[in-house]
Amino acid sequence: MIRIGIYGGTFSPPHNGHIAAAKAFMEQMWLDFLYVIPTATPPHKEMDVPVDAAHRLEMCRLAFSGVEGVYVSDMEMRRGGRSYTVDTLRELTGEDRRLFLLCGTDMMLTLDQWREPEEIFKLSYPVYIRREKDALLDNMIVQKIADYNQRYGKVVRRIVTEPIELSSNLVREKLGNGEDVSSLIPASVEKYIRDNHLYV
Fold first, then answer.
1. Helices assigned H by DSSP within 31-163
2. pLDDT one-digit tens code per residue, 68-127
3. Which 8-state DSSP code applies to residue 118?
4. Checking phi first, is residue 197 left (phi over 0); if not, alpha (psi -120 to 50) or beta?
5. 191 CB neighbour count, 10 Å cutoff
6. Minimal CA–CA distance to 154: which of 130, 109, 123, 114?
7. Domains delineated in the chain
8. Which residue among 19, 102, 116, 145 has its CA within the 20 to 30 Å range from the CA of 186?
9. Whole-model pTM?
10. What Rg, from alpha-carbon coordinates, does the chain have?
């Protein structure tokens, strides 16, 4: 049985928190490999500074190029339209595969509001990683995981790591203000952003 991780998102731009999450996901879920999949058009949110999908794909390739076992896929971009996780899972599923789906806390808490949540839980094992230290969410997370287990018959597992309180929104904000982002994103991604005049 091949263990495959799926890490989707806007990645506008990909940052060091994304890379750390991918590495922890691979290690703790014993993944054989991991697909990083930039969305074509995200269904859950609108981007305040829209960047062409081709740029986001190339930035992901640069950001994850040094991480062994990670493959950046354009499958959602090739599919076009709004990117729904259930469609990606259907495309990747197979009898010899076990799929693990990585979510941030906010996404995990709303999985039951996604398109065809029953199918998502049927086709994959959702896993979440905390990117915040908000203790007020602790009880909500416990209750939601219990609810999912009762409704869908699967326990949502957690990646245990120190939360990295970093977001693409913060990086975009700093770039727009002309601030230093060298500690937040890989040098290759920063160069690409500068060369292509993104987020300004």
1. 53-63, 75-79, 85-92, 105-109, 117-123, 138-152
2. 999 999 999 998 778 899 999 999 999 999 999 999 998 999 999 999 999 999 999 999
3. H
4. left
5. 12
6. 123
7. 2-165 (3.40.50.620)
8. 102
9. 0.92
10. 17
